[in-house]
C-alpha cells in the first residue's frame, strides 16, 4: 500500500490548478449503510429497468452501430490542434472485432444490431495495482485512523487486528470492487493479495472465488503480497504454497524498513520467483538512500538472472524521484534493457515521480488504484481515466496531442492513434475490449472525465447499456 510521505492532495492540486480533480477524487466515496453496493458499481446484469431503451447484447455475433472512432489528427503546421473522428459499425464475433464497417456500408444480414449513439470507443482500461482482497468498499463509511507519527510497522500492527474483521466477507467486497472497476471501463487488473500469518491463505482463497465468479467478464493477475514482511512475518513457506494456487507474481515489501535486511529480503523474494518460474511485483515505498540501493540491487539481480528478464515490476518506486538526472538516466536505461516495469499510482507530493523520463528511456510505465477505501487511504476511485487526467496535469499535458498520449498510462499503452496520427486501434482481429464515453476524442475524455456508458470485455457487455438500432 502507498505510504503517506506525500503532502496534502488539496494543497498540491490547488497550487497546480487542478482543484477540480481533487474534488472529483474526494466526491462520491462509498458510504451509507453497511454492505450497500453503490449504484455506480452495479454490474451490467444488475442494471435497473429504468434505463429506458437500453439493451445488453447477449449474442456471440452482433453489430454495434454509430461507434465514434478516431481517424487522425488535425494540424496547424506541425501543431496538433484537434482530432478527426467518424462513425463506424463494429462487427463483434466470438469476443473479437471481426470487422469495422464504414458509415453507409452494407452490413451483414440477419445479425443483431445495437446502437452506440455516436459515443466514442476507448480501449479498455487496465488497473495494474489494486488490492481487491481487503477493502472498506461497500461497507459503512470509515476513514483511516490518523497516520501522523505512525511507522509502517505501526500500520502492520493495525492491519493484524483488522484483517479478522474483513476476512469473513472479503469475497463479497472484492466482487463489489470488480463491479466498480467495470463501471469505470476497466476489465483487466493486477491485484495484490495478502499472504500473512493472520489470514494465511484465506484471503487468497476468497479472492480466487471472486475472480472465478467473473472469469468471463474480468481478467486479473494475482500477486502474493507479504504485507507484514517476507522475513519479518516468516511467510516464505506460505508464499511458496500460494505460487501453486494460480498466483502469477511473487510480492515483496520495503526490504530495509520492514524486513531490516535489504539484500537478504530481496534474495528471498527473487529465489521464490526463480524456483517457481513466476514474476515479481514488489511494493517499494522507501525514499531514503536504502530505496535507491534496493532498486539498483534489483536491477543487478535481473541482469544476473535472465529468467527474470521481462518479469519484474517495481510498484511505487518513490526512490526514483530522489535520484539525480544522470543516475536516473543510467538506472532507467538498465531497467528498460531488462524489461523492468514501473507500476505507479501517479502520486501527488513534494517529489514528483519521473514517469515521463522513465518512459523516454523505454521503461514501461503503468498505473493502478492501490487502495480504493481502506485503513491505508480513503481516496481511490478505481478510475484509470482519472489517472490519465492526473498524469496530464502533473506533466503539463494540456494540449490536444499530449492529452491524447496521456491515455496510454490507463490502457496499458494502447492508443487509438500513433504519435503520427495513424490508426492504431481498433483493428479487425483485436479483442473486443473497450468502453464507450460521451466524448469526441481521447483528449476530451482525458481532460473532462466523462462517465462510462458501457464497458465490453471479450465482446461481452459487463457494464452499462446500448441502444436498439
Structure summarized in a few sentences:
It is built from 14 helices and 18 strands. With 469 residues, the chain is α/β, with parallel strands linked by helices. α6 runs parallel beside α7 and α7 packs parallel to α8.
Q: Under the CATH scheme, which class of the largest domain?
A: Alpha Beta
The quaternary structure here is single chain
- Determine Rg (CA atoms, Å): 22 Å
Tally of distinct domains: 2
Strand element count:
18
Task: Name the helicity range.
Answer: 25-40%
Task: Tell me the CATH architecture of the largest domain.
Answer: Alpha-Beta Barrel
Structural class based on helices, strands and sheet pairing: alpha/beta
Task: Quickly count the helices.
Answer: 14
Low-pLDDT runs: 1-50
Mean pLDDT: 90
Please give a structural write-up.
The chain has 469 residues and is α/β, with parallel strands linked by helices. The chain has two domains: 9-41 and 126-400, TIM Barrel (Alpha-Beta Barrel); 45-124 and 416-468, Urease, subunit C, domain 1 (Roll), CATH 2.30.40. 30% of the residues lie in helices and 23% in strands. It contains 14 helices and 18 strands. An eight-stranded parallel β-sheet has the order 7-8-9-10-11-12-13-14. Helix 9 (325-337) links the parallel strand 12 (312-316) and strand 13 (341-344). Helix 11 packs across helix 14. Mean pLDDT is 90; it is low at 1-50.
